[in-house]
Specification:
Helices cover about 15% and strands about 10% of the residues. By secondary structure, it is low in regular secondary structure. The chain is rod-shaped and about 175 Å long.
C-alpha cells in the first residue's frame, strides 16, 4: 500500500511537470503574487513589477519551493544593482561629477524595488530618510530654510548625482532664484559675494540660530571680510554698536553706493530729525546731503558726534585756517576750537548759521553790566556786533576792526571831532573814557551823569570858584539852572564847552578868543 501511494505521488508530479513543459510555462509564468502579494500592495508600485518578476529576478526557478537560484546574484537578480537598474534608468543621471555616497550603498538603501507608500518608491519620507545618514542637528536649529522645514531636500539637491557641488540641482546663485526674486540681487551696486554667487558665504542653506539663516550674527559675520578696526573706535554709531549693519546697508544689492538703502541725507533722516538741516541758513555740506564729509558713519576717535576729525581741524578742511589763526588776538572760542559754541554745524534761522541772532548770541558769554544799560549803542542795539569787532581774530585789543577814533568815524561824522581845538581823549581815540561803548544807564552813552563825566578828569574845577575867581564873586554856576542858549536843557559844562572839538580856545561852544569873550553870548554888555 505504501509503495502504491509513493508511486501514485510520483505519477502525479510527473503529470504536472509534463503539463507545464508541454504548455511552455516556467517560473516566469507562475503568479508570484500568490505568495508575494504584499510586495505590490502599497500606493506606489515599481513599473518593473507590472512587467513581471522575471524582469529583474531572471535567475529564480519558481517551480521549486524554496526557490532555487541559477546564478550567484542576490535574490536571483539577472545582474547586481546598480547595473540591473540601468536596464531601464539612464545611467548618465547617476554618474555625473559628484555622486551621492548612498549610491555606493545600493539603490535599495533609499528605494523599495517593489512598492512603497512614498513617492519615488522611497523607503521613508523626506527628511526622515535623509536623516538616516545626515546629522539631524544641522537641520533643526532655531531658524530653518523653508524647504528644509518642509522636508523638500530634493528641491535643492539631486539625490543621485550632479555636476554641482553639494549635489545641488543647479548652480549658485541661479538655484536660489527658483524661489527668491532675482531683481533684488541685481541692482546697480552688488555686494561682491552676491555678484560671485557666494550665497553660502553669509547664509546657511539649512538652519541656523541667527536671523535670515545667517551663518553667524552681525556684525561678526561682516567682519569675516571687513576690517573690524574702522568700526570699533571710541565713538560708535548706535546701529554699528548694536550690530545693525542691515539698517543702513542692503546686504545684496542697491541703487545707491555703499549698498545704502537710500541716498544721504534721506537715509540719515530715518533716525535723525530732518529739521536739523532745513532751517533758513544751512551749512553747505548739510544742504547738499554730504553728511559723510564731516561725520564717520561707523565709528570715530574724535571727541564727539562721530566727526571725521576734531574741531577746528575738521572745519579747516573747507575753511581757510589763516582766517582763524596767526593774528595777535583770537576770540577765545576760536582759540580753543569751539566753533560750535557760536555756529550750528547743520542749519540755523540766523545768518552765518549762528546759533542765534546777535547780540543775544554774544550775551551768552558777555554778561557784565557793560551790556545791561538802558541807553544802547546803535550797532549793539541792532545786533551789529561785527560792525566793530572781528568774530574770530584780529590785530587789535577787543578784536576791534579799527583803532578808535577811526572806528567811530565809520558811523559818526568826523567833522564833529576834528576842529582846530580837540578834546585830548578824542584826539587820542579814547572815546570810551567818557562813553560806554555798548550800553549805559545815562543818555548819550555817558559813563556818568552830566558833569560827573567831566569831573573824572577836571576835579579842580569843581573844588574852586569857576571863571570869576578874583572878581569878588562866588564864581560862575556850572550846574542846576536852565541853559539860556539851549532850551529845555539844564546848565552844565557842555553849555560852554564842546566835549569833542571846537574852533575856539578851551573848546568853547561859541566864538571866543579868550574866556571873557564867551560871556557876551549870554550876558549883555555892562552886566559885568
Amino acid at each position: 500500500m505504501k509503495g502504491f501511494c509513493s508511486l501514485n505521488r510520483l505519477l502525479c508530479l510527473t503529470f504536472l511537470f509534463s503539463a507545464l513543459y508541454v504548455s511552455g510555462v516556467w517560473a516566469e509564468d507562475i503568479d508570484c503574487l500568490m505568495c508575494h502579494e504584499p510586495l505590490k500592495s502599497q500606493k506606489v508600485v515599481h513599473a518593473a513589477v507590472a512587467m513581471g518578476c522575471p524582469t529583474c529576478h531572471a535567475a529564480i526557478d519558481a517551480k521549486d519551493i524554496p526557490h532555487k537560484k541559477t546564478n550567484n546574484s542576490p535574490k536571483g537578480l539577472s545582474s547586481e544593482a546598480p547595473d540591473l537598474c540601468y536596464g531601464c534608468h539612464d545611467k548618465s543621471l547617476f554618474s555625473k561629477k559628484n555622486v551621492h555616497a548612498a549610491l555606493g550603498m545600493g539603490c535599495v538603501t533609499c528605494h523599495n524595488p517593489h512598492s512603497s507608500a512614498n513617492a519615488k518608491l522611497l523607503v521613508s519620507e523626506q527628511p526622515g530618510l535623509c536623516l538616516n545618514c545626515h546629522d539631524k542637528a544641522a537641520f533643526g536649529k532655531k531658524v530653518q530654510h523653508p524647504p528644509v522645514s518642509s522636508g523638500m531636500c530634493t528641491s535643492c539637491h539631486n539625490p543621485h548625482s550632479s555636476d554641482n557641488d553639494k549635489l545641488l540641482s543647479g548652480k549658485l546663485p541661479e538655484i536660489c532664484f527658483n524661489c527668491h526674486d532675482k531683481s533684488k540681487f541685481g541692482e546697480q551696486y552688488v555686494h561682491p559675494p552676491v555678484k560671485d554667487g557666494m550665497c553660502m558665504m553669509c547664509h546657511n542653506p539649512h538652519s541656523t540660530d541667527a536671523p535670515k539663516l545667517l551663518s553667524s550674527g552681525m556684525p561678526d559675520l561682516c567682519f569675516n571680510c571687513h576690517d573690524k578696526a574702522p568700526f570699533a573706535k571710541k565713538s560708535q554709531h548706535p546701529p554699528v554698536s548694536a550690530g545693525m549693519c542691515g539698517s543702513c546697508h542692503n546686504p545684496h544689492s542697491s541703487k545707491n553706493q555703499k549698498l545704502l538703502h537710500s541716498e544721504t541725507p534721506k537715509l540719515c533722516y530715518t533716525c535723525h530729525d530732518k529739521k536739523m538741516t532745513s532751517e533758513k541758513y544751512a551749512h553747505p555740506p548739510a544742504k547738499e546731503g554730504m553728511c559723510g564729509s564731516c561725520h564717520n558713519p561707523h565709528s570715530s576717535d574724535a571727541k564727539g558726534k562721530m566727526l571725521t576729525q576734531d574741531v577746528p581741524g575738521l572745519c579747516f578742511s573747507c575753511h581757510d585756517k589763516g582766517n582763524f589763526s596767526g593774528k595777535k588776538v583770537q576770540h577765545p572760542p576760536v582759540k580753543t576750537g569751539m566753533c560750535t559754541a557760536c555756529h550750528n554745524p547743520h542749519s540755523s534761522k540766523a545768518n552765518k548759521i549762528l546759533l542765534m541772532d546777535m547780540p543775544e548770541l554774544c550775551l551768552r558769554c558777555h554778561t557784565t553790566n557793560e551790556f545791561k544799560g538802558r541807553d544802547k549803542h546803535g550797532p549793539f542795539k541792532a545786533g551789529m556786533c561785527n560792525s566793530c569787532h572781528y568774530p574770530h581774530q584780529g590785530d587789535m585789543e577787543k578784536l576791534l576792526i579799527k583803532r578808535p577814533p577811526e572806528l567811530c568815524f565809520d558811523c559818526h561824522r568826523d567833522g564833529d571831532f576834528v576842529s582846530r581845538q580837540g578834546h585830548k581823549p578824542v584826539q587820542e581815540g579814547q572815546c570810551y573814557l567818557c562813553h560806554g561803548v555798548h550800553t549805559s544807564k545815562y543818555n548819550n552813552l555817558l559813563k556818568f551823569r552830566d558833569n560827573d563825566v567831566c569831573q573824572q578828569c577836571h576835579d579842580k574845577v569843581f573844588k574852586s570858584e569857576h571863571i570869576l575867581s578874583g572878581f569878588g564873586s562866588k564864581g560862575h554856576p556850572i550846574s542846576g539852572k536852565n541853559d539860556p542858549k539851549r532850551k529845555g536843557r539844564k546848565f552844565g559844562c557842555v553849555s560852554c564847552h564842546v566835549p569833542h572839538s571846537s574852533d575856539w580856545v578851551r573848546l568853547f561852544r561859541y566864538e571866543a578868543n579868550k574866556p571873557f569873550d564867551l560871556c557876551r553870548h549870554c550876558h549883555k554888555e555892562g552886566q559885568f
